[in-house]
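General statements about sequence and structure are easier to judge against a single worked case. In the encoding step, the backbone of a single protein was reduced to a row of integers, each denoting a local shape. The record that follows shows the chain in one-letter code together with its fold in token form.
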Amino acid sequence: MKKLSIIISLSAGLLLIGLLLPTVATAETVPSKPGYTLDFDDEFNGPTLDKSKWTDYYLPHWASDPSKAKANYRFADGKLIEYIAKDQQPWSPALDGTVKSSAIMSFNKNWVHNFSGTDQILSNQKTWEGYTTTYGYFELRAKFSDVGGGGHQAWWMVGMQNDTNDWFHSQQTAEIDVIESFFSKPKTWRIAAFGWNDPFFETDWELHEDPVPSGNPTQDYHTYGLDWEPGSLKFYYDGKLYRQINEAPDYPMGTILNIYTDAGSGKGNATFPKSWSIDYFRVYKKNGGYAIPKKTLQNIPSKKYLTLDPNKDQVSLTDMSSDYSKWQLVPKGKYFLIQNAKSKELLHIESMKNYVEHGHVPATNWSAQWQKLDYGGQIYFINRWKPNQTIAFDPKTNSLLNQTFTGPNEANLWQN
């Protein structure tokens, strides 16, 4: 009995020690994605925001008083809860009126997203990047607000404008709204995209708002995914393809996660706080990368390969594939650049000669942009500047002509 008493006392003592010691959370294991490697993640387990990854100020360079742009948020049950408090002040009255916002961003940089078109920033910021990138599979698991009234939750991405600090001349200004879902429409998912100054991506707003295919976004957690590749944006709901946009930016973008009220989505009601809950944010990169393939373009009737001679401006054909007969079809919005993999020159018809030219012309020249169309598994090209012109083989001269397009035929069909 004495021995049993000692054992019981020892067990009780160990239990007491266990209760007094701080609890150490078990590290969360991020699941792998077949064919991809994890590049970035935040599981939002708290108790504080990881400031190496995020800032908790919303576009502070557009706020004359950046303190009003600071987010309200907390952590609970391994989730980030962003919220709008009842007494919260508008984040930038001078530029955005009565709009209230709580956001975290993966960057902080002057001039990014000049939504109002102003000619000066309101508070100078030191450039900081926690995570910006080009391409990848991005996934967010979240539960939407159920307060009703005006407002919305958002996950969106913006171009980092690394080409120039001058917003008005930057072409790296795209916006992708992966989530922009309104409180007043709790069972819908809105996707939007716009290029702003980017001449190659969505020159008009691309807007889609549809019911979610299953579940209740305000009552349950669901995953929202974006697979961003050259020339393609694919949106996923709970792992299933939901929508696709066949255009994509090709430069680094940063991430913003936030909640609004009194914005374009409507004036808020009297229910506070207005909040949404984020479980995790993850980014995976495709194994093997995102390089555009270097391939030959073989003319169907002649079986010859499109090539160039660096000493001549006329594009020609060859029987044997060489370094100068490899090409990259570079997506630029709805069009493609046909770029030589060796010389980096572009096919174009800038001089309107009777043959197709090559050279280092600007990518923004419509004469160097081509619509790629499918015809029974083969392709043909129509010029953007002169939509009645195509790239065709002329058997009489054994050369390529800038030919008037009358429809797909053997002369202008290619295998890539």
About this structure: The longest helix spans residues 2-20. Residues 1-26 have pLDDT under 50 and may be disordered.
